[in-house]
Amino acid sequence: LRIASPGHVLGLTAAISDSQHETTAEVIEPCQTNFVRKLDFNHFLRNHADAGMNAIRHLCLEYKTAYSQIRSLGLSNCVADKLASLLLEWSKNGVSNNGSVNLTNSFSHEAIAEMIGTTRETVTRLFKDFRERELISIDGSNLCIRDKYRLEATIGNGRKSKPVQ
Length: 165
Prior knowledge:
The chain has helices spanning 12-17, 38-47, 49-75, 79-91, 109-116, 120-132, 148-154; strands at residues 95-97, 100-104, 136-139, 142-145.
């Protein structure tokens, strides 16, 4: 559903709504996590209004992110737009330098295809197209968005991906 960054809270919705977790998490690189029992967390929120407001802000951000993803997947005219949008979302966590962004891509083409609702072959073809258009470069797991503004400008420009048979 998303890539969590340092400081992100996972399971907030389930803790506050007293419901079951609807998803699982998988790490893609070594990390440290901390666990807080739901009862302790809710007690803390009840006694610290500023923490409660931060939890509300975090939930609103999750909602906006989910809404944006649904809109992108549901309303995009073509798969190329969906892939470009995904890369631009990832660019928020990359190292930026004058419009170019360097990322470490830990996902296979198959996993990326699942994220945007297409096939592995289509993702491979689109990566090749993006490289040929000098929008991105790839060296192993290092992915460079050469100019995120140019990549952003490609979204919705009418360039349709070929239907997959």
